[in-house]
Amino acid sequence: MASESHQAISVIRKAQELITPAAPTPREIKKLSDIDDQEGLKFNVPSIFFYKNSPSPEMEGKDPVKVIREALSKALLFYYPLAGRLVEGHNRKLLVDCSGEGVLFIEADADVKLEHFGDEIQVPCPYMDQLLYNVPGSDGTLGCPLLFIQVTRLLCGGFIVGLRFIHTILDGFGFMQFLKAVEEMTKGANSPSLTPVWQREILNARNPPRITCSHHEFESVKNSRDIFLNLNPDEIAHKSFYFGPKEIASLRHRLPSHLEKCSTFDLITACLWRCRTIAIEPNPDEIVRLSFTAGFRGKHYNKLIPPGYYGNAFAYPAICSKADDLCRNPLEYAVQLVKKMKTEMNEEYIRSVADLMVTRGRPKHTSEGLFIVSDNSRVGFDEVDFGWGKPVFGGIAGALLLISFFIKYQRRDGEIGIMVPICLPLSTMLKFQEEMKKMTKAPM
Questions:
Q1: Is the dihedral of CA 347, 301, 384, 65 positive or negative?
Q2: Where is 276: in which H helix or E strand?
Q3: What are the CA-CA distances from residue 303 to residues 31, 134, 331 (Å)?
Q4: Sign of CA dihedral 322, 326, 332, 334
Q5: Which domains are seen in the chain, by residue range?
Q6: Is 58 exposed, middle or buried (0-12, 13-18, 19+ CB in 10 A)?
Q7: Could you give the CA distance from residue 147 to residue 165 in angstroms, rounded to a whole number?
Q8: Distance between first and last Cα of the chain
Q9: pTM value?
């Protein structure tokens, strides 16, 4: 289990600085796609990576802060829009001013060793506000740095890399692509092995736009209550839940034979949605929703997204159900809803989303009765190597209010599973934990 000590640590930060591209880059205005330019993507995503003091021969005696700082500058030559700032154009259309101002960087030192964080590091990290300090005024959308990196040295020679990016400019795969470029620069590369591609116009609305699919994710539901409304931060619980082979087997045992071979994603997602809804205790007739990130990269989508594209290339389809139907039916009910929605995902769907954005003035993603899951378990965060080996833990830093992320996780005994951080009110979290124990308990 992770350490529960949570003793105070001291992190001494140097003044923040802006890391600019290593050489002059084009000064231009670049348009985002109509998929990038969604109100629901205007938020920052934090991630965290813990590294042992295990440098490669080439890194022996080198300072990870200096190595990563220089690699960032080199990588920004190729990803120079990330060194710019978001601005608004006509009709609030978001644009990137490729100003070359740079990404925010902080050098820091902590007074603890890596072992202080426990023998199995989990998120959320209780020291996140120190390991990824929120520089005042840096976490907005317009005019703010698009990336923020803090590298914190540890007493043992290990270090921690905290990062934050504005989702408007990147998705998880795009972020990983950039990190891979930084990794390659730390190892002496002169250019990234995968050339970055902008081409945001490929996910723009059609002319004329035409909404051809149902998009429940943008519909308003008036009969749902906001469980986070008027809550203080101290009244919100953040916990992670692990799904290993035993937990997955227990969930599969609950399904009829024709569903036993459903994907692990379908199974975990359905379980989380059902348990969360039971814990929230909505009115029986209330409509509850599940959204998940459906990516459009790969051969299944007629190569819609070219290799090297680092913009947002996914949709947030929403599944709707009466709360009573979801809570009273067995797990298979939720699994079937997830599977059905996945079969409806195709290129036409994301085209329809882009058309909806311009037709309806970029409406917000509904938040009423909503739970969102994003599968980052195959992105590759657990393999980011800046020259000191793979991270002890690497991934999204925890759950957001309505969003949980699937994180690939290796336990101390070598077992690999999926970790999912959850954010809920304290009283609701206790009920959620009880429901999860029931669902993942091994059959008698």
A1: negative
A2: helix 264-280
A3: 22, 38, 34
A4: positive
A5: 11-203 (3.30.559.10), 216-440 (3.30.559.10)
A6: exposed
A7: 5
A8: 25
A9: 0.94
Residue type at position 65:
V
Q: For the chain, how many residues are written?
A: 444
Per-residue pLDDT tens, the chain, 444 aa: give them.
333 446 789 999 999 999 999 999 999 999 999 999 999 899 999 999 999 999 999 999 999 999 999 999 999 999 999 999 999 998 888 999 999 999 999 999 999 999 999 888 989 988 999 999 999 999 889 999 999 999 999 999 999 999 999 999 999 999 999 999 999 999 999 999 999 999 999 999 999 999 999 999 998 766 566 677 777 888 899 999 999 999 999 999 999 999 988 999 999 999 999 999 999 999 999 999 999 999 988 766 668 899 999 999 999 999 999 999 999 999 999 999 999 999 889 999 999 999 999 999 999 888 888 899 999 999 999 999 999 999 999 999 999 889 999 999 999 898 999 999 999 999 899 999 999 999 998 665
Interacting residues of 366 by C-beta distance below 8 A, sequence separation 6+: 216, 217, 218, 219, 220, 221, 289, 318
| Residue 192, Cβ density class (10 Å: 0-12 exposed, 13-18 middle, ≥19 buried) | buried
Q: Report H helices in 300-346.
A: 323-328, 331-343
Of 167, 365, 375, 382, catalytic: 167
Residue among 97, 139, 325, 385 flagged as catalytic: 385
Active site residue 385: yes
- Token pair for 371: 């739970």
In the numeric block, the tokens 């005019």 are attached to: 143
- E-only strand ranges, 6-65: 11-13, 17-19, 29-31, 44-51
